[in-house]
Design goal:
single chain, about 375 residues, alpha/beta, CBS-domain, Double Stranded RNA Binding Domain, 3 domains, 15 strands
């Protein structure tokens, strides 16, 4: 654990100001910041939180911080790999059993350790890249890029012109622009936000772009990401854009190689053979599992998608989701003519039930403290 854990350059308290924190995150190039109160971990602030829910820069950190997945100082490497893969976190706080904050394990520190110990599979990038790739056009608005990042739980988007990559836009690019308005009046902040959201992506994208060929090895991909301090690379076949390989994809390959037990189990209809459709289903499961992991520890996350015929000779899909967590067991279901929509509605319902249970537990704890 000592080889993996690093000191957090930036640490926040619930009473800190959001605008000042964003400036520190940008300067330190830190994607996730632990929020500490009296030495104990109480939450975190990430670029994802700041992108998903726009907060006045003068607000306190307590208004934007979210629950965070964490690891104990006694956890082994396999458990840490599994935590990163299921939560898709950029950094995970390390705590003692009583939640005392020790430090951070980042994707970079984990991958450096795995590289050093020759645990990266010698597989080709094209085998583990995300494809089809989610892209934006140079003329697309920043608002569209923001929406795609939130919807698909991704931190980087390739900016494409036809089959060629023209640039990269990241969560950090958008958040940095949005929160530069610190110190202005509220009405001026809103006007500035509208202006930024209406901008074409080409005005904030980074270029030229660091890319990798599909026949490169995962080791080469990790080496490039670590040296360039980036989380992913557009994948090319020749000069044609075909996918994106991220550091979380590599961590998934490691989990697969070492047969690390993951909490996800999914049963899909045999008739679902379309690769794009299955990819969409996998993406929904991974995104919502990562959200639940940030709320509570997940022991198992089971998804069942069944196909049946309606009276109009149309297919209807029934989605059932079961989660066993530290907060208890939860079940949700829903149906729709579209498989992905049925599953999305079911997992959103499950997530809401878990959040409601967490709020109930927190209110009960506050009540107990108030009665002492």
């Amino acid at each position: 654990m000592d080889e993996l854990t690093i000191e957090s350059k930036v640490v926040a308290s619930p009473s800190d100001i959001v605008g000042s924190l964003v400036a520190k995150m940008k300067e330190a190039q830190q994607w996730a910041v632990p929020v500490i109160n009296q030495g104990l971990l109480v939450g975190q602030v990430t670029y994802k939180d700041l992108l998903r829910r726009r907060i006045n820069p003068e607000s306190k950190v307590s208004s934007v911080m979210t629950p965070t997945v964490s690891v104990n100082d006694s956890d082994d490497v396999q458990r840490i790999v599994a935590k990163f893969y299921t939560s898709r976190a950029r950094a995970i706080p390390v705590v003692t059993k009583d939640r005392k904050f020790i430090g951070l394990i980042t994707r970079e520190s984990l991958l450096s350790y795995l590289m050093k110990n020759q645990m990266i599979p010698q597989e080709r990038v094209r085998k583990y890249m995300s494809s089809p790739i989610v892209t934006v056009n140079p003329s697309d608005s920043v608002a569209r890029a923001r929406w795609l990042m939130v919807r698909d739980n991704i931190s980087r988007l390739a900016v494409a012109e036809g089959e060629h990559v023209a640039g990269i836009v990241s969560m950090r690019d958008i958040v940095s622009r949005l929160y530069e308005a610190s110190g202005r009046k509220r009405e001026n902040i809103m006007v500035e936000e509208e202006r930024i959201m209406a901008m074409p992506v080409k005005e904030i994208m980074s270029y030229p772009v660091v890319t990798i060929q599909g026949n490169a090895t995962l080791t080469e991909a990790v080496t490039t990401c670590l040296s360039k301090k980036i989380s992913g690379l557009p994948v090319l076949e020749g000069d044609r854009l075909t996918g994106m390989i991220s550091t979380i994809d590599v961590i998934g390959a490691i989990a697969e190689r070492f047969k690390i037990e993951l909490p996800i189990q999914a049963k899909l209809p045999r008739t679902m053979r379309n690769a794009d459709e299955r990819s969409a289903i996998d993406g929904i499961i991974e995104r919502h599992l990562s959200k639940v992991e940030r709320i509570t520890e997940v022991n198992s996350f089971k998804v069942s998608l069944k196909e049946s015929a309606s009276g109009e000779n149309k297919k209807i899909y029934e989605a059932n989701v079961r989660a066993s967590t530290k907060l208890g067991d939860f079940v949700a279901s829903d149906s729709d003519w579209d498989a992905a929509t049925a599953l999305r509605k079911a997992v959103e319902r499950l997530e809401k039930r878990i959040v409601d249970k967490l709020k109930t537990v927190q209110r009960k704890k506050r009540g107990e403290k108030g009665s002492l």
